[in-house]
């Protein structure tokens, strides 16, 4: 099903996310956050390959801001400013993976189980409020 590199990549990524969660849970413990960051990035590298990882972080000029913020946050965590570093790092990750989140959102709307739930009037109303707050005038998702 998966090659060994992908299995290792999935494991490293999951352990990275677990260590990041534990680092935040333990009042922003610097060592857990640093270990989580290293495991997460190495897991992504094993999962999609080194060239694709470089393309993910440095592929276009739009991604340079997200990459810079992620690296700045990583360095701030290393230099014992974990709260500020994690906030900056989270914003960098948001900028890097925002378009991927839109693809997941569209997939969830088209799925047979979650799609009808997301099309309920209360959920649509909440989505409309989010669109208004983000400055988008109309929805880009299918009805």
From TrEMBL:
Q: How does it sit in the membrane?
A: Multi-pass membrane protein
Give any Gene Ontology cellular component. Answer: Golgi membrane
Entry's Pfam families?
Got1
Q: Name one GO biological process term.
A: retrograde transport, endosome to Golgi
Entry superkingdom = Eukaryota
Which UniProt keywords are given for this protein, alphabetically ordered? Golgi apparatus, Membrane, Transmembrane, Transmembrane helix
Locate the transmembrane regions by residue number: 7-25, 31-50, 70-91, 97-118
Q: Localized where?
A: Golgi apparatus membrane
Question: Its principal location?
Answer: Golgi
Query: What's the family?
Result: Belongs to the GOT1 family.
Q: What is this protein called?
A: Vesicle transport protein
Source species: Lotharella globosa
């Amino acid at each position: 099903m998966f090659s060994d590199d992908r299995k290792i990549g999935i494991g490293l990524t999951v352990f990275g996310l677990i260590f990041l969660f534990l680092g935040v849970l333990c009042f922003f413990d610097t060592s857990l956050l640093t270990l989580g960051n290293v495991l997460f990035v190495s897991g992504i590298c094993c999962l999609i390959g080194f060239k694709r990882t470089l393309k993910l972080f440095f592929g276009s000029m739009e991604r340079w801001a997200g990459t810079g913020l992620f690296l700045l946050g990583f360095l701030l965590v290393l230099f014992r400013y974990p709260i500020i570093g994690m906030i900056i790092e989270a914003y960098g990750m948001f900028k890097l993976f925002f378009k991927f989140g839109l693809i997941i959102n569209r997939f969830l709307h088209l799925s047979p189980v979650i799609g009808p739930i997301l099309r309920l009037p209360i959920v649509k109303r909440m989505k409309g409020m989010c669109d208004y707050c983000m400055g988008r005038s109309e929805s880009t998702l299918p009805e």
